[in-house]
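User: Before I run my own analysis I want an independent prediction to cross-check against. Here's the chain; please return only the structure tokens and, at the end, one sentence I can use as a sanity check.
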Amino acid sequence: MRVLFFFILALTLQSCATKKYIKTQLLPEGLQSATEETYKVVDNQQQLLQKKEMTFTANGRIKHSKTMDINGNVLQETKKKLWFIVELYPGKETYYCKTRWKPGQRERISCYTRKQYKENESIYHYNTDGTINKIADNFTTFYTRYFYYTNNELSRIVVKDKNNQLIDEILVRCETKDEKGTCLKQTRISVITKNKEEIRFSPNYDRK
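Assistant: Structure tokens:
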């Protein structure tokens, strides 16, 4: 009976665990909090699109995040609970997101309202080092994003529809790093639309 109990407990913990954010984003250990600002770039002019504030758990997962628009209005807030992630949106029902592990370095992330209506679902595929290999939307657009890396850096994102037709290709380049190797400024340029974005990342590390 005790063996069965621990087997069930192990499966339960596995179903609710998620990959560490610092691993998926190629960030160093010891990250306590960070701010991420996303800008639209037109004619070398940067226009802020949104700002995201994050605090992290000791093992590198997001404990709490808040995403705001250029006026400081909250677009999304997330809170990590023991068995799920709570997502809050202004004027909408709260989402409850649960992760279930699947074979082959995959996890299924599904979000529901309290009434158990499914709002979205994605299948995340990972490389052996914990970085994202691809993300398949399983509910809304049904697009799949493929992530490519060069010299341990994200270099390209390819977006395809469910018929494997190309939707977009985004070239990613890190412009500036800190002493820990964290990318502080990253540019993303769409090959198809020519749209350009700049992501500025400001990390705060554990001082120990």
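Sanity check: The two ends are 43 Å apart (CA to CA).
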